[in-house]
Amino acid sequence: MSWNNDLKNAKSQKKDEFYTQLSVIEDELKHYKEHFKWKIVYCNCDDPYESNFFKYFAMNFNFLWLKKLIATSYSPSPIAHTQLNIFWDKKSYKIEINEVYDVNCDGAEDLADVKYLLENGKWKNKVSILEWDWDFRSEECLEILKKVDIVVTNPPFSLFREYVAQLVKYNKKFLIIWNVNSLTYKDIFSLVKNNKLWLWQSIHSWDREFKVPDDYPLTASWFRIDEKGNKYIRVKWVRWFTNLDYKERHDGLILYKKYEPNEYPFFENYEWINIDKTTSIPYDYNWIMWVPITFMDKYSPEQFEIVALWIVWSCEFTKNREMFILDKKWERTTKKTFNAKWTLYRKHLKTDKKPAAFQDVETWELYQSIYARILIRRKK
């Protein structure tokens, strides 16, 4: 099953608990030390006894010079209920860490110390029951959000747009992990275009492994169950989204290809060149180009201007061709459409690995459709 299908299932079944692996968090957060000094960090979708975000910040509280760490559980936590003696009800709760020190004198400041400080009611580290068993949208969580500096978490998949909108509304710095295809959401893309959100450092390709709850259906294309019975799935196209700035995003791409008209085909319904790979962007072409959304992995605001986003049904086309729809064997079906189902399309090339999808009713020429694209222009 694809990542998109996993997201659809998450939305329909409210299966939002995809737990990010600690190694993935460590690979990203190691770039951020200067951003966190004397800051209040909030993990607002995190059961601390499941969330590796909480574990990372608790273990690195002093190394990062944090002022405070706060975590609020997304829903009642059966794990915390069984592991902490201070819980009398299975309710959503808040953990607030103000100090971490080596309580057991084993030479390390770790989760054992954090747990001891919490269980023994040290005044600087607090556990409190939330009045409402809800999520980041509750009044209690909202009041916490207003007072923190940086939010770091894996937000619920079914509420991603609402989640980001809340962070933007309250002008919060954030670092969250999600799917790169969310760049095609108009509200998310608007943030990108206006330089209010960008992709970060450690993930540019491939997939990542997430732990899922025991009752999660294992229908993904890749999954495993470890020796303790924990379930994991691998999902594609994950990226870090942030508004924390960093030096590398201003460096720009090294472009080495010269523009050759034969190598850069125009779309039939738009006279701008198509580029399938970021490495193929020509260094001497100054007009508008269509690039895949993964271009955002290498985007520098000093090097390129983002002109617009194109997704299905979002453009007025310059041509109006009737097309046969082809089946998987490239054979014509009885079905027809105009403008290749309202996608961008270009003539199918012999070198294309992707099969043709449409055939012109009049000329019988083959065409290939291309969906999400970003329009960019090189800055002079």
Name its key features.
380 residues; disordered N terminus; 10 helices; five-stranded mixed β-sheet; 22 strands; alpha+beta; eight-stranded mixed β-sheet
Question: Concise description?
Answer:
By secondary structure, this protein is α+β, with helices and mostly antiparallel strands.
Q: How are the SSEs ordered, and which strands pair?
A:
Elements: H1 3-13, E1 19-20, H2 22-29, H3 33-36, E2 40-43, H4 52-59, E3 68-72, H5 78-83, E4 93-97, H6 111-119, E5 125-129, H7 139-147, E6 150-153, H8 160-169, E7 173-179, H9 186-193, E8 198-199, E9 207-212, E10 223-225, E11 231-236, E12 238-242, E13 266-267, E14 270-274, E15 289-291, E16 304-310, E17 322-326, E18 332-338, H10 339-342, E19 344-347, E20 358-360, E21 366-370, E22 373-378
Parallel strand pairs: 2-3, 2-6, 6-7, 14-15
Antiparallel strand pairs: 1-9, 3-4, 4-5, 7-12, 8-12, 9-11, 10-11, 13-14, 15-22, 16-22, 17-18, 17-20, 19-21, 20-21
